[in-house]
Design a protein that fits this description.
122 residues, 5 helices, 0% strand, single chain
Length: 122
């Protein structure tokens, strides 16, 4: 084997390992949702309208990433996500903005619908 061929093989193997280690998993999704939800519950009472818009954007981004892995959620992870949704709904309901509450409710409903649809197909 030529030295150059060996280098190519080593490079491809390393690139494959790097790619595999960077993939987003169901466990990552649950951890990210938990971290964001915990942060919001802890700080939500001090959030401004702009802060809530940013939280909504962050949840949207997480749900986009989660679409790739949501079918791999365990029943326990699904239960955790449901509990966090309920906690978030309580926190969001304290904020005095009808439009923002509706936006957030719609976002969380979409996430739940996606989870339900994904697991019905299997």
């Amino acid at each position: 084997m030529k030295k150059e061929d060996f280098r190519k093989i080593v490079f491809l193997l390393l690139a494959g390992f790097f790619f595999a280690s960077c993939q987003y998993t169901a466990k990552d999704y649950v951890a990210d949702m938990k971290a964001l939800t915990t942060k919001v519950i802890k700080n939500g009472s001090n959030y401004t309208s702009e802060d809530w818009k940013e939280v909504t954007r962050e949840y949207q981004e997480l749900n986009k990433k989660g679409k790739q892995v949501i079918k791999n959620l365990t029943q326990e992870q699904q239960k955790e996500l449901k509990e966090w949704k309920e906690e978030m709904m309580k926190e969001a309901s304290k904020f005095d903005s009808k439009e923002l509450k509706e936006t957030f409710n719609n976002l969380m409903d979409q996430a739940n619908d996606f989870i339900k649809d994904t697991f019905k197909k299997e």
